[in-house]
Amino acid sequence: METFAIFVFIISLQSLMFNVYSSCLHQSSSENILEDSSSFPCDFLFGAASSAYQYEGAFLTEGKGLNNWDIFTHEYPGKIRDENNGDMAVDQYHRFMEDIQLMTSLGVNSYRFSISWSRVLPRGRFGSINYSGITYYNRLIDALLSRGIKPFVTLNHLDYPQELENRFQSWLSPEMQNDFVYLANICFKHFGDRVKHWTTLNEPNQQIILSHLKGTFPPSRCSLPYGNCSQGNSETEPFIAAHNAILAHAKAVHIYQTKYQEEQKGIIGIVVQTSWFEPISDSIADIEAAERAQAFYSNWILDPVIHGKYPKEMVNLLGSALPRFSRKEVENLKKSRLDFIGINHYTSYFIQDCLFSSCNTGDGASKVEGFALKLNRKGNVSIGELTDVPWQHIHPQGFQKMLNYLTDRYHNIPMFITENGFGDLQKPETTVNELLNDTKRIQYMSGYLDALKSAMRDGANVKGYFAWSLLDNFEWLYGYKLRFGLYHVDPITLKRTPKLSASWYQNYIGEHLRSRYH
Ligand code: NOJ
């Protein structure tokens, strides 16, 4: 009888252990095929993402200098939908302990945040380090780690000291490369003993289209007919700015890999914005146009940082407007190979050819975006469910296709999904209850996570997923009226309240990532 009881006890223990073990998959880097459709690898990062200007506030606190977004939002409040700015944002600078508590209850194992450049270096290379800024990030990193949350740090997410704009027009000058490396070196030195995941720049492709092609983001540079700015040249400047950003990235990676990586044992990558571009018809012209759309968007940045050259579609169409890499720069690009790519992904479009066919004017139709018109609809069929936000179309299959495309083009490179999420546009009649009952966000995230799993089963080497965003925050030109948070933030009190999606994400993580370490 006794032996039988021991036998039953052992069997139940084994099955208990099997359940715990089987809820996530132990996987070696060589086998990245998911066999169990319900699970992610045990070391998979499930996180939430943020950025300094959109979250921190404290815009003049403890030595921070003014940055490009401080100046832009103060000088032109009318350019922001609710005439607001990031002076206070969601005050994470003062409330990070409370926010870490929210992360703990969500069950995330990583938090993506960025360094406010002008908090650490108020005047770039031209002044001294602001040690209060260093202390702030040290406290944030330590507090995250003490709760088992890995810091996933972006060196630069759109904001830079205004002094760099005033002195040499920021990304239009190669000087910016030196400034960026200066910042990167300081961050690796002060934080790299604890930060094991670094990304250099956030979405240079999308940022530069807005800042130097359409001119809607600072420094508001563009030319007609692309946008209405008092200075700039949309046909040349975006490519100069991106060139400097690519070289700045490569220099930062080089410093990390030669000076820090061996000892600190972290990894480093870059973040690009991606969209899936579906040819609107089976014609060769539309298929090639969809490929050109990719070339002029994410491949613009990824091809040089991975393969050391611009996509051939850009070289062919842009001619001398596209800067060239010197032989030494090509060598450096190839030498400073990144460890992973960060993928921000929100939407898909149909693409129609405008190179060989006549076309309406519209987004993407011009030479500087590859003569590839972006459309929401083909006749009366939309690319996915359309939303209140003109650029957000719910089309998870596009995400799967995008990840397979990247896997193929960049030879199975490791990827982190550094942003994916759904924005609720707040109208005058929207109630707080409606914002809290965010079933559309749940539908969106669950569709995109299913697509992610399918892509991983197809072979995509994805190592983590970050929801954009932990909290409602300052959404650039939309101000606080476009809300991406899993937590609602009251505009007056800044009180954080979980939305339905927060408990949904918490359950999702719990079900998919329970490992024996948790
Ligand atoms: C990407 C950007 O990195 C982030 O700053 C922005 O808030 C989200 N997209 C949503 O638009």
Task: Set down the secondary structure blueprint.
Blueprint lengths: L1 H21 L22 E5 L2 H4 L12 H8 L16 H15 L3 E5 L2 H4 L10 H16 L3 E7 L5 H7 L6 H17 L5 E6 L1 H10 L23 H28 L2 E13 L4 H12 L2 H10 L4 H7 L8 H9 L4 E14 L18 E4 L1 E2 L2 E2 L2 E2 L6 E2 L1 H14 L5 E6 L3 E2 L6 H5 L2 H20 L3 E6 L14 E2 L3 E3 L6 E3 L1 H14 L5
Parallel strand pairs: 1-2, 1-14, 2-3, 3-4, 4-5, 5-6, 6-12, 12-14
Antiparallel strand pairs: 6-7, 8-9, 10-11, 13-15, 16-17
Helix pairs in contact: 4-6, 8-10, 9-10, 10-12, 10-14, 15-17
The structure holds 1-deoxynojirimycin.
Protein name: beta-glucosidase
InterPro entries: GH, GH_1_N_CS, Glyco_hydro_1, Glyco_hydro_1_AS
EC number: 3.2.1.21
List keywords for this structure.
8-stranded parallel β-barrel; 518 residues; alpha/beta; two-stranded antiparallel sheet; binds 1-deoxynojirimycin; 16% strand
Mean pLDDT: 93
Output the number of helix runs: 18
Shape: globular
CA-to-CA gap between the ends?
35 Å
Biggest sheet, strands in spatial order?
1-2-3-4-5-6-12-14
Fraction of helical residues: 40-55%
Strand content: 15-25%
**Helix vs. strand class:** alpha/beta
Largest sheet: 8 strands, parallel, barrel
Family: Belongs to the glycosyl hydrolase 1 family.
Keywords: Glycosidase, Hydrolase, Signal
InterPro entries: GH (IPR017853), GH_1_N_CS (IPR033132), Glyco_hydro_1 (IPR001360), Glyco_hydro_1_AS (IPR018120)
Catalytic activity: Hydrolysis of terminal, non-reducing beta-D-glucosyl residues with release of beta-D-glucose
